Amino acid sequence: MQKPVFCQPDGLLLMETRLLTATANVVIIDPNPLSAEGLRKHLEMDRCIKIVAEARNLAIKLEDLTEFGAGGELIMFVNASLLHSNLALSNPRGTLEGLARKIVVYEIEPEHTAIVQAAQIGADGYISKNAVVEEYLAAVQAAKVGATFFSKPLSEHLLDQLPPQKCKIDNYNLTNRELEILTLLAHGLCNKAIANRFDLSVRTVEAHRLNIRRKTASNTVADLVRIARSLDLPDMGEAAPSIVSERQNLELVRS
Q1: Are residues 154 and 84 part of one domain?
Q2: Which of 6, 74, 150, 201 would suit a FRET pair with 223, their CA atoms being 20 to 30 Å apart?
Q3: Which CATH number do you get for residue 215?
Q4: Dihedral, CA atoms, 202, 196, 229, 250, nearest 10 degrees?
Q5: CA-to-CA distance for 3 and 14, rounded, in angstroms?
Q6: Is the dihedral of CA 112, 114, 117, 118 positive or negative?
Q7: Domain boundary among 141, 161, 181
Q8: Where are the alpha helices (DSSP H) in the chain?
Q9: How many CB atoms lie within 10 A of CB 35?
Q10: 42: closest CA among 107, 90, 99, 114?
């Protein structure tokens, strides 16, 4: 079953209370003592979080933790700067193998390589630089219920990297010119205005318009607006009036 993904702390409000109130044993792995101390203060704001150990690098071993009484499930908080170490780069997935059930990487730069490096060690939580306290606490809660947490800047970066969705456009099989004309029709431009925009004859625009109507099964300008929005077509500039007259609706039906 796929794990749920939370991109903001509010997404945890409806999770099972029993899991959220269980104590989370946390190990902080950070090369900077001051940074580790700041993280400790953040996490200890939640009475259900217990800091059981700290380490300065990824060479931590299971026996290093048992002496602190760190039994049961552990949540490792790893500073993203350690992901550049030779240990992490040579064996990313085995770096913390056998030590933690959950891994949260923090202070991640919002760029692709940094996020991939966190994923390579099996991270369950991704916290960006300059994150607020609530994000750290939410990452722990997400880990406790088996979810994945992303800070908002990181989730937005990932969404920006997604390729444009073309499946809906392909369903209508519209040409590039038809998509351009559909956009302007949806903005309320008449045939003559569109013809002037693209240096075409009015008759050519009418032909394109008829093809659009047939391919999309649209009968009114309202239909065109709905279809254009569903395809997330770009703004062509020269915003047209948002209110379309009944005469334009009739013109589309007759064309």
Answers
A1: yes
A2: 201
A3: 1.10.10.10
A4: -40
A5: 15
A6: negative
A7: 161
A8: 17-20, 33-43, 62-66, 86-90, 112-120, 133-144, 152-161, 167-172, 176-186, 191-198, 202-216, 221-230, 246-254
A9: 15
A10: 107
Backbone φ and ψ for 168, nearest 5 degrees, come out as -70, -40
Q: How far apart are CA 37 and CA 54, in angstroms?
A: 10
Closest to 53 (Cα-Cα) out of 61, 155, 150, 176: 61
pLDDT digits (tens, 9 = 90+) for 36-56: 999 999 999 998 999 988 889
Q: CATH no. for residue 137?
A: 3.40.50.2300
93 shares a domain with 194: no
> In angstroms, rounded to a whole number, what is the distance separating the alpha carbons of residues 111 and 227?
34
Q: Is the pLDDT score of 130 beyond 50?
A: yes
* Nearest alpha carbon to residue 151 among 92, 80, 217, 222: 80
- Residues in Cβ contact with 128 at an 8 Å cutoff, skipping those fewer than 6 apart: 107, 108, 109, 110, 135, 151, 152, 153, 154
Contacts of 89 (CB under 8 A, 6+ apart): 83
DSSP-assigned letter for residue 1: -
User: Scanning the structure block, which residue is given the tokens 């049961």?
Assistant: 72
pLDDT at 108: 94
> Do the bridges between strand 125-128 and strand 102-108 make them parallel or antiparallel, or are there none, so unpaired?
parallel
- What is the per-residue pLDDT across 78-97, written as a single tens digit (0 to 9) for each? 999 998 876 565 554 455 65
CB 119 within 8 A of CB 158: no
Q: How far apart are CA 63 and CA 58, in angstroms?
A: 14
